[in-house]
Amino acid sequence: MTARVEAVIAEVLGGPKYAHLAADDARRILAALKASRIAVVELPEPVLSPRHQERVWEVGDSYVMFNEKWRTISAELDYDNGDDDPLPPSEARAFGAALFAAADAVEVDQ
Which domain of life is it from (predicted)? Predict the structure, then answer.
């Protein structure tokens, strides 16, 4: 979890004046969610391609693309460069977040 996620939860719990007091509560809430296998994911921002009406989320050599005109999502996962190395957890999380962000873009624009 990022500090930003904790800060947002703490602010909601305690308001801006008491956000610092709610920080421990926010950490406990996030720990309970994680223990229950519920993920809180910060969605990345896309790179916009106005000419092609696309939003692109790049993760290493992989990408997720949302086509605004056709309302479709496409993705390409390219992680091993031919050397059969496994996908690192950090890239798996980033690619998953990019997929969530693209799905969110489709739903928001409907």
Answer: Bacteria
